[in-house]
Amino acid sequence: MFVFLGRLAPQKGVHLLLDCVGPLVRATAGRAHVLASPYARRCAAQMAQLRASVGARSFRCGGGGAFVSAAADFGVMPSLCEPSGLVGEEFLAAGTPLVCAATGGMRGRVSSSS
Predict the structure, then answer these.
(1) Model's pTM, two decimal places?
(2) CATH number attached to the domain at 2-106
(3) Domains of the chain by residue range
(4) What φ, ψ does residue 67 adopt, rounded to 5°?
(5) Which of 11, 59, 84, 94 has CB 3.0 to 4.6 Å from 105, enough for a Cys bridge?
(6) Where would you find this protein in the cell (predicted)?
């Protein structure tokens, strides 16, 4: 399970993750799901388009970030700009591997081989 936790803002790169959802859901025959917190306008519009093309059953809403980050197979941070990366630190503290953009504070915390 890949997990993004954080606020929905353009610099967080959520739109990059959403670009992957449609192909991922289709490639897994609907076994991939999106767990989402309240929507920002830009992401809500993109999610509505995805929902229409891949089906509403592929979307879920939830909470409990600490439990989710510990249960995740991978944390995902596609941030375009990430000054410190507190959420990334929380994934790492939970022992969850982190896939992130090489930007800001996370650049020094992860490597391409870890």
Answers:
(1) 0.65
(2) 3.40.50.2000
(3) 2-106
(4) -70, -40
(5) 84
(6) Plastid, Amyloplast
CA angle 76, 79, 47 (to 5 degrees): 70
Count of other CB atoms within 10 angstroms of residue 64: 9
Q: Which residue has the tokens 């803002």?
A: 9
Question: What are 13-31's pLDDT values in tens digits?
Answer: 988 888 988 898 889 887 8
- Relative to beta strand 2-3, strand 74-77 is parallel
Rounded CA separation 113/20 (Å): 23
Answer yes or no: are the C-beta atoms of 59 and 44 closer than 8 Å.
no
- HSE-CB of 1 using CA atoms within 13 angstroms: 14
The amino acid at 53: S
For residue 37, what is the DSSP state?
Answer: -
Give strand ranges (E) for 55-107: 59-61, 74-77, 98-100
Handedness of CA 50, 52, 53, 57 (dihedral sign): positive
